[in-house]
Amino acid sequence: MSTPPDLGAVRAWTRAQAAPVRLALACAEHPDPRSPRPESEASVRSLVVRVPGCLATVPRSEVVGLLVDGALDVVLLLDGCERRDAALDRFADLTALFTPAGGPGRVTSPRLSAVVEPPPSDGGSLPASAPVVMNGASMPLPRRTMLGAHDPGRTTTALPPHATEAEIAEDGGTDHADLLAALSVLMERDASVLMERDAHTPGPGAGPDPAIAAATAGPGLLLRASRCTACAVCVRTCPEAALTMRIETGAGVLEQRVDACSGCGACLESCPAEALSVRRRARWSEQLRPQVLPLAVVETRVCARCGAHTPDRGADLCEVCAYRRANPFGSILPAEIAGARA
User: Fold this and answer.
1) Strand 71-77 vs strand 112-115: parallel, antiparallel, or unpaired?
2) Are 28 and 49 in contact (CB under 8 A)?
């Protein structure tokens, strides 16, 4: 499996800027990336960045993280992407989530969008500007930034006091977990930003509109469970720790953290009892707040041999220990052969 493109250098460069910037991301294979910026917005610095790879595999959290770092908006230049359909599908829910809702005090242009056709070279409302194209693998950084020094004069794009880089990208965190953290920071920052500036003043901060989040499907799945045996295989399989099995007095309780679900489907594939199924896709509004969904309550007892909790079927042993007691050598004859020998 190839390593996803790393936007760490781009994010560090964005954080180091003294004023908001507009970013356009292009794949490494893009033949001629052009920035689709209106001439009326020339007062805001705009540049194109070639990511070290394909946008179809770039971590979603890294792209949204650029907005947290201070980018005014981010455009994905998919007109030159060799895997355009895959990239569109990968970011479809996020571009929908950042669709502008308008209204008093809200930004009027999307903060995350995708371009699938080359911008017009002459004529039209969005002329292709002569781009400043930078290499995303080696962005120029001020010496103070490289040495880790804080510049008090650069506060425009700094993270708010309640958010640190550790909260946005914890060590060992998954792309989905980091994405939720970045979106959370944007939404927390949203209220204070809208109070400080009007809808037409450039500046970072406005997060997804709640009404759009309620109408947009996120990546997660809302599950249901039937015939659950409390084996907890799904809990151990989930890479996002979105499933938990609580053992209470005489019962095992299977629960789903809706916000943590990335929709990978590992739990559905791994359940030996095929007890899990999908109710529907979760909406972004359901994934942007902590929410626990109870799935199953299974009466259990403790296996007399291994001590594991097992469904209470009136026997002292779990299924595994019962099999091992009946077949101490680990093998069993097929029923038709056992019947013939009898």
Assistant:
1) parallel
2) no
